[in-house]
Each structure stands twice: as structure tokens, then as C-alpha cells.
Amino acid sequence: MDLQPKIGIGLNYMHLGEYMQFHIRDKYLEALFANDALPILIPPIEDKDVLRQYINMVSALIIIGGLDYPPELYGEKPHPKTEPMERRRAISDFYLLDLILETGKPVLGICAGMQLMNIYFGGKLIQHLDNLDIHYGEKMHDIYVQKDSCWLSKIIPEGKITVNSNHHQCVDPAYIGKGLKVAALSPDGCIEALEYNSEQMILGIQWHPERMQDIEHRNCLFNFIINFNL
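The structure assignment produced for this chain is given below.
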């Protein structure tokens, strides 16, 4: 079977064992395969011309979760609990977002990927949450989708859904990036989704749909972005 379309997905870059390695959890790829898409793995590269070739190959981009984006990117000093990712990945992700915005193709940011979107558009993060009992350790909680959201309300029309949660940072509601709007909130007010105010689908979500045991939940999100331009 010819799997279409091709979906770009950025890899992590991290120290595993004795070596620096490109890395991605299998659940991301399984979710794409399950929805008849062909993942195009994009290694973190600090060369925009090379990354542009990847973007030209794909119909959409997914920016995955991972460690924390370096806080100097949004003008802050590191919190003691901040675990910065390798700068190589952070730079590559910024380039990828820059390039995908030039094309009009859809982009989905998952967990840290959503936080990147906020940083990219001039926002900031809360580097360490006080209420980790709700948000860290694959905890489950409800989120409430804003009725006026452009994309998420189409994906989750019921307006409320239970999600998994595994993050110790979040978007700072006092510093939301220019052009972004809140698309979903948790009961304690944590920002769970962001959208950019444009016709291009630019959606960030704080949870991990690729790891949800609710397959319908997983598929509705991945299927939406995969088939967005078909």
C-alpha cells in the first residue's frame, strides 16, 4: 500500500549511553502509520537549507515533546528544575517552525512542541509548575476546548475530553505569543492548547495523543492533520 501523505516529524537529539543519538519514541510513528501516513524523520540540523529540503518533501510537520527549551530563548535564567534540551535540537526546531510557516502547510506541536510555538511568537514559559500532582507522571485530567477555537473545536467538537499529562513546564498565561490564542484549558487554568490566528493550521497541544490508550482520541488528532490538505 502506498502510504500518503508524507508527514515530517522532528527527532530528538540526546545523550543515550555512551553516544549522542537521534531519538524518537515509537508511539509517534505508530500513530502516523495507523492513520495511513508515511513518517519522514527529520534529524536536528543547524542548517536551514538542508531542513528546507525536508519541509519541501512533506505535507505537514509535527514537533514532538522532549526536554525543556533553553530559557535564554525567552529571556529568562534557568530554574533549578529546568532540564534544557541540547541546543542543536532547539535551533533546528526554530528553523523548522520558521520554514513551515513560509509554506502554509499545517503544523502540530505536542507538549514541548506547543511550548516552542509560544516561545517562537515571543511568549514565555513557567519553568516549573507547583501542582505537579495534576500534570506530571502521565496523570489523566479533563480539558475544556474553547468554543471559538478555530481548529481544536473541529477535532474535539464535544468541547471536553480527558487527556494524559506529563509536563513540568507550561505556557505562561501572562506572556502568550503574539497572534496566538488559547484553545483549551485544564480545570486549574493551565493552558492545554494554542492556535495561531491564521488560515494556516498552527496548533499546539500540551498532552500526548500518541500515547493515549483511547485509540479514537489518538486517531482524531493525527487524522485531522494528516488529511488537512487532501
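Interim note for the steering committee: The first strand starts at residue 6 and ends at 10. The helical segments are 26-34, 48-57, 87-103, 112-120, 132-135, 152-155, 215-226.
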